[in-house]
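ok trying this again, last paste got cut off
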Amino acid sequence: MLPAILQHGKGYHEMGPIRPPSEGRDRSLLLRITRNCPWNRCEFCRTYKNKTYGLRSVAEIKADIDTVKALAEELKATSWRLGYRGTINREVVAAFINANPSLYSEAYSEPSIVQRRLESLANVVHWLSSGARTVFLQDANAPQIRTAEMVEILNYLKENFPSIERITSYARSKTMARKKPEDLKRLREAGLSRLHIGFESGCDEVLAGVKKGTTAAEHLLAGKKVREAGFELSEYYMPGLGGRKWSQKHAVESAQVLNEIDPDFIRLRTLVPRRGTPLYDRVLAGEFEPLTEDEVVEEIALFLEHLDCHAYLASDQMCNLLWEVEGQLPGDKAAILNTIHEYLQKPLHERLKIQLERRLSSYLFIAGHLKPDLSADVEAAWEAVDSRAPDAPVKVQKVLDIVKAAFI
C-alpha cells in the first residue's frame, strides 16, 4: 500500500522551470522554495514574464520533501522486490508506474496532474541514480525567504536525506547585499553551500539599460559577503549584453568587478535576444544593436584578457558558440585565449561553417528536426558557405536568428 503522502497528497513535488546546467549535469533534486522571480523586470529575460511571484510555506515545502522521500522509498522497495537490490533502472520505474494507476493513469487523474507526477518521479529517479547527493532550491531567489524558515527547510531536508553533500540555489546580488553577515553564516552552516548569481555585467550603464535592478557596487558587496560567509560562488557573465555601444566597457568593467569578488566559478551565458522580451523589441526598433557571433567572441577575449582571479571559467550554456572556452584561471588563461584567437584567425567561410554546425547541433537537440522552411534556409546557407559566396554571412545569419531563438 502506498504511503499516505502519496495516497492523499498531490503525488508530486513542485518544481520550477529552470536550473543551472551544472545542476542538470549532476542530476540534482529540484525543490521549489519560492515561485517565479521577485524582480522580474530584466529586459533580456522571459522566464517569469506574466507570472506572479510568491513565497511557499515551510509546511508546503516539507510536504514536498516527504513526497520525495516516499517516492524514493517506494522505488527502492520495488527494486528489491524485482531482485535489483536497490538499483533504480527502467524496469523498476516501469513496474512502479504500472503498479500505481491511481497516480499515473489518466483514467484516475487529469492529464496535467499525471504529467506533473511523472516529471516529479523522473527527477527523483535521476537524483537517486546519481547518489542523491545534490539539491537545487528554486526559483529565481530562494534565499529571499526569512533566514529562520530557510534554516528549518535545510535541516528537514538533511534529516530526511543524510546522503546530501551539496545544496545550491540562485540568488540576486541586491538580496545578498542586504543580508546580514550573521544570516548568511547561518544559511551556510545549515547546509546551503553554493549560490548562483546572475551577475550579467559589472558596467552600470549596461545594468541600468537592461533594468537589472542592481549596480556594480551591489554586485561587489554581495559577492564579497557571500565569499566571506563561506559559500561557493558562481557568477554568470553575459557576453553581448551591452550591444555594440557598450561592448568594450561591459567586458572590461565586468572583469574588474569579478577580479575583486574572486568567485569560484565564472559562467559565460551569451545574450540571445528572445521573442517576448523588451530587449527583443528594442532590437526590432533599432534601439539595441546586437553583436555578431565573431564580435561576441572578441568581447569574450577582451573580458578574459582583463580577468585576474582564481575562478573556473565555464562555458556550459547552450547559447555559447565556443564551448571549449573553459578552464581554471589563471593557469589556463593563455591556452583559452589561444583557442579564441585560433577561431578568430580562421578564414570567414570556416568561421561561418563552425557557427552553422554548432548552432544547428544545439537546435536539433531541442527540436529534433528541421521544419521545411528552415531546412531550405539551411541548405541555402550551406551552399553559400561552401561556394564562399559574398552573401554567405547574410544567409548564415538568417538561419542563426531562427535557431538561436529556441535556445533555453
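PB: full thing came through this time. The first strand starts at residue 29 and ends at 32.
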